[in-house]
C-alpha cells in the first residue's frame, strides 16, 4: 500500500513539472532535435544558439530600425515599473490599512466589504480600466501601467489584518506622549509591519513579471515595453517571419528566461507561501 | 470619447448575438471542467500526503505551486509544442498507447480540454494549501481516539478527515467556480480565440481590442461583473447558512 501511495505522488508531481522540464531541455536543442520522433527526453547535443538568437542583435532590431539591443532597455523599464509600483502600493495600502484598523468612522464595515470585492473582481475591469487610462492620456506611458496597480485591495487587506494584531496600547501610549498620527504611522507601525511589506513586495513582483495583457495594451511603442511583453513580442516575431532557424527553441529559451526570476523570487520566499501568509486572505 | 447615449442597446444586442450565446455555453463548459478538477485533485493529494514525511510534503507543495508561477503566456510557449500534432510530446505519449495523433488545438472539443488542462495545472497550489492547513488544524486527540478504537488509516481518512474537510471543499468550489470565465492569455496564445474556444473574458478582450467596440466590451464586462458579484454574494449566503 505504502509504495503505491509514494509512486502516485511522485508520478503526479512529475507530470506537473513535466512542461517546465521539457521547456528547459528544449531550449538547449537544435531544430532537428525538437522535430524528432520520439522526442528527446534527456538533453543530448545541447546548444546555446536559442539564447544567442534572443540576445544578439537580430532582425527585430533591424525591422524596427534600431541599431542597439533592446533587451537592456526592457529590463530597465520593468525594474523602474516594479520599484515605483511597490513603493506606491505599500505607502497607499499602509495608510488605508491603518485607517481601517485603528479609526472608527461611518460606513467602515460596508466600505471594507467593498474593498474585499476589489480582490475578487480585477479581471473583469480590463476594458473599463483601459477606457479610463485612455481618457487620462496615459496610453504608452509607464504611469498607465503603474497607476491602475498602485491601489491594491489585497495589500490593504493584508495591512489591516496585520495592524489588527498590534497591541492597541502601543498606539495609545504614543498618543499620550504627544506623537502625531504621521509619526505613529512612520515610527511605530511601519517598523512593525515588515511581514506584510515582504509579502506584498513578493506578490507585486510576481504580478509585474507575469503581467502580459495589460502591459501589451498600454505600452504601445517597443522601447517602452516591459521585459515580458518584449520577449513574447520577439518570439511572436520569430514565429511569423522566418529569420530564426529555430523559432520553437527560441520560444522555449524566452519562456525559461521569463520564468527564472519568478522561480528565484518564489524559492527565496517559499516560507511565506507555505505558511499561508499569502493564502490567508482566502479564508476571509 | 463616447459619442451618444444608446440606452440598453448593447445589452440587448449581446443577447441577440448568436456568437455570444456560444461564448456563454463555452464559458460554462470551461467552468464545469476546471472547477471540479481544481477542487478534487488537490483534495485527493492533500488526503494522500498529510501523514507522509515532511520532505515529500514540501516537494508536493513545490510541484503544485511552480506551474502556477509560469502563468499564461510563458507556459503557453511549451504547451504549443506539447500539443503539436506531428511531433508534439502529447501525441507521442498517446502513440505509446496506440492512439492515433490528435489535432489538439484545431478542434473545438480537444482545444477546450487542452486549455482547461493548462489552467488546471496552474491553479492547484492554493487549493492544496487550503486543504493541508485545514488538516493541520484538526485536533490530534481525534486521531488518537480513532486509533484507540482500532480504525485503520483508510478509515481515518475517509470517515474522519474527509468529513472535517467539507467546509474547505465548499470554499475551494466557490473560489474556483469563476476560474473558467477569466482565462484570457492562454486562449490568446493557444488558439487566438478560434475553434470555439472563446470564454467571457476572451470575448470581452476581442470585442474591445480587436473590434474596437469599447461600448459593447464594457456592456459585456458589466454582465460578467454581475455574474461574478452574484457568485460572491452566493458564497456569503452559503457561509452564513453553514454557520447557522
Secondary structure layout plus pairing:
The complex is a heterodimer of chains A (284) and B (244).
Chain A: H1 2-26, H2 31-34, H3 49-55, H4 59-64, H5 71-102, H6 108-120, H7 126-135, H8 142-150, H9 153-164, H10 168-176, H11 181-192, H12 194-210, H13 213-218, H14 227-240, H15 247-268, H16 270-274
Chain B: H1 9-16, H2 18-49, H3 54-69, H4 72-82, H5 89-96, H6 108-122, H7 125-136, H8 140-148, H9 153-176, H10 185-190, H11 200-210, H12 214-243
Helix pairs in contact in B: 2-6, 2-7, 2-9, 3-7, 7-9, 11-12
Structure description:
The complex is a heterodimer of chains A (284) and B (244). With 284 residues, chain A is mainly alpha-helical. Chain A folds into 2 domains: 1-47, no CATH class; 71-220 and 268-283, MetI-like (MetI-like fold), CATH 1.10.3720. In chain A, 71% of the residues lie in helices and 0% in strands. Chain A contains 16 helices and no strands. The longest helix of chain A has 32 residues, at 71-102. The two termini of chain A are 38 Å apart. Chain B is mostly helical and 244 residues long. In chain B, 75% of the residues lie in helices and 0% in strands. Chain B has helices at residues 9-16, 18-49, 54-69, 72-82, 89-96, 108-122, 125-136, 140-148, 153-176, 185-190, 200-210, 214-243. In chain B, helix 2 (18-49) packs across helix 6 (108-122), helix 2 (18-49) packs antiparallel against helix 9 (153-176) and helix 11 (200-210) packs antiparallel against helix 12 (214-243). Chain B is flat and about 75 Å long. The interface between A and B is large, with 58 and 60 residues.
- Radius of gyration of chain B in whole Å, from Cα? 22 Å
CATH topology of the largest domain in chain A: MetI-like fold
Radius of gyration computed on alpha carbons of chain A = 23 Å
Largest sheet of chain A: none
Classify the fold: give the CATH topology of chain B.
Answer: MetI-like fold
Mean pLDDT of chain A: 81
CATH superfamily name of chain B? MetI-like
CATH superfamily of the largest domain in chain A: MetI-like
Strand-residue proportion of chain B: under 5%
Indicate the percent of residues in helices of chain A.
Answer: over 70%
Tally of helical runs of chain A: 16
Taken from the alpha-carbon principal axes, the silhouette of chain A is globular
Uncertain runs of chain B: none
Just name the CATH architecture of the largest domain in chain A. Orthogonal Bundle
Total count of domains of chain A: 2
Amino acid at each position: 500500500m505504502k509504495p503505491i501511495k509514494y509512486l502516485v505522488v511522485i508520478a503526479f508531481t512529475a507530470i506537473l513539472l513535466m512542461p517546465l522540464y521539457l521547456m528547459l531541455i528544449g531550449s538547449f536543442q537544435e531544430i532537428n532535435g525538437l522535430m524528432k520522433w520520439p522526442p528527446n527526453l534527456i538533453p543530448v547535443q545541447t546548444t546555446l544558439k536559442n539564447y544567442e538568437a534572443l540576445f544578439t542583435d537580430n532582425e527585430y532590431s533591424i525591422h524596427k530600425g534600431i541599431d542597439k539591443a533592446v533587451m537592456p532597455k526592457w529590463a530597465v523599464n520593468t525594474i523602474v515599473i516594479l520599484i515605483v509600483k511597490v513603493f506606491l502600493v505599500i505607502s497607499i495600502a499602509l495608510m488605508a490599512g491603518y485607517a481601517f484598523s485603528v479609526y472608527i468612522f461611518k460606513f467602515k464595515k460596508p466600505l471594507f466589504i467593498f474593498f474585499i470585492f476589489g480582490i475578487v473582481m480585477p479581471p473583469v475591469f480590463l476594458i473599463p480600466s483601459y477606457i479610463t487610462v485612455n481618457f487620462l492620456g496615459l496610453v504608452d506611458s509607464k504611469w498607465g501601467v503603474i497607476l491602475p496597480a498602485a491601489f491594491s485591495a489585497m495589500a490593504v487587506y493584508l495591512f489591516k489584518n496585520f495592524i489588527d494584531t498590534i497591541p492597541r496600547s502601543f498606539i495609545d501610549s504614543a498618543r499620550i506622549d504627544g506623537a502625531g498620527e504621521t509619526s505613529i504611522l512612520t515610527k511605530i507601525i511601519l517598523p512593525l509591519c515588515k511581514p506584510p511589506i515582504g509579502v506584498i513586495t513578493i506578490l507585486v513582483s510576481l504580478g509585474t513579471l507575469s503581467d502580459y495583457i495589460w502591459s501589451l495594451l498600454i505600452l504601445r511603442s517597443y522601447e517602452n515595453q516591459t521585459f515580458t511583453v518584449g520577449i513574447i513580442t520577439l518570439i511572436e516575431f520569430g514565429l511569423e517571419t522566418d529569420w530564426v532557424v529555430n523559432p520553437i527553441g527560441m520560444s522555449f529559451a524566452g519562456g525559461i528566461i521569463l520564468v527564472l526570476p519568478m522561480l528565484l523570487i518564489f524559492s527565496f520566499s517559499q516560507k511565506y507561501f507555505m505558511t499561508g501568509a499569502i493564502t490567508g486572505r482566502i479564508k476571509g | 470619447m463616447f459619442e451618444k447615449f444608446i440606452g440598453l442597446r448593447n445589452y440587448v444586442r449581446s443577447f441577440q448575438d448568436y456568437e455570444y450565446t456560444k461564448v456563454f455555453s463555452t464559458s460554462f463548459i470551461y467552468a464545469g471542467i476546471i472547477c471540479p478538477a481544481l477542487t478534487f485533485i488537490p483534495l485527493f493529494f492533500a488526503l494522500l500526503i498529510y501523514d507522509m514525511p515532511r520532505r515529500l510534503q514540501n516537494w508536493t507543495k513545490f510541484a503544485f505551486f511552480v506551474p502556477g508561477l509560469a502563468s499564461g503566456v510563458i507556459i503557453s510557449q511549451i504547451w504549443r509544442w506539447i500539443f503539436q500534432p506531428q511531433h508534439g510530446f502529447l501525441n507521442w505519449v498517446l502513440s505509446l498507447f496506440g492512439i492515433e495523433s490528435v489535432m489538439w488545438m484545431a478542434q473545438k472539443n480537444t482545444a477546450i480540454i487542452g486549455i482547461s488542462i493548462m489552467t488546471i495545472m496552474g491553479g492547484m497550489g492554493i487549493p492544496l494549501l487550503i486543504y493541508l492547513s485545514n488538516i493541520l488544524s484538526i485536533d490530534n486527540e481525534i486521531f488518537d481516539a480513532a486509533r484507540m478504537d482500532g480504525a485503520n488509516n483508510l478509515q481515518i481518512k475517509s470517515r474522519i478527515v474527509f468529513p472535517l474537510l467539507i467546509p474547505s471543499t465548499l470554499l475551494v468550489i466557490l473560489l474556483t467556480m469563476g476560474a473558467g470565465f477569466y482565462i484570457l492569455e492562454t486562449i490568446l496564445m493557444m488558439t487566438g480565440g478560434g475553434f470555439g474556444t472563446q470564454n467571457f473574458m476572451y470575448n470581452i478582450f476581442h470585442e474591445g481590442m480587436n473590434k474596437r467596440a469599447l461600448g459593447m466590451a464594457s456592456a459585456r464586462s458589466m454582465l460578467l461583473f454581475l455574474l461574478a458579484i452574484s457568485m460572491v454574494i452566493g458564497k456569503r449566503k452559503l457561509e452564513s447558512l453553514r454557520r447557522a
